[in-house]
Amino acid sequence: MENFTILVIYKAKYEGAREEFVKELMGSGVLSAIRSENGCLAYEYYYSNEDKCRLVLYEKWESTEHQKIHMTQRHMSMAMEIKSKYIESAELNQVEISAL
Length: 100
Prior knowledge:
By secondary structure, the chain is an alpha+beta fold. The chain is built from four helices and four strands. It has a four-stranded antiparallel sheet with strand order 2-3-1-4. Strand 2 and strand 3 (about 55-60) form a beta hairpin. The longest helix is centred in the C-terminal third of the chain and has 13 residues, at about 75-85. The protein is globular and about 35 Å long.
C-alpha cells in the first residue's frame, strides 16, 4: 500500500489569523482527533516566514481511502467552522514522493 501525501496552502484573512486558527484547532481537540485517526501518519501545520498570512498543512495518510474517510469524520465539521473564521482560501496539492 502506498502512502498518500497532501500539502494544503492556506491564506489567512488577516495577519495573526493563521496562529489563531491553529490555536483554536488545538484547543477544541480537533487536531488531536485528526492525528489519532486510523491511517493518519502526519498532520502538521507550518508558518511561512515570508508571508504572514500563509499557512501550510502537511498531511500524510496510509492511503487515499484513509484520507477520504478522514474527510467524513464528525470533528471535520468543527474544523470547517473554525476554518471559516480565519481562512480566506485554500489550495490543495497532492505530493508525489519517490525513493532516491
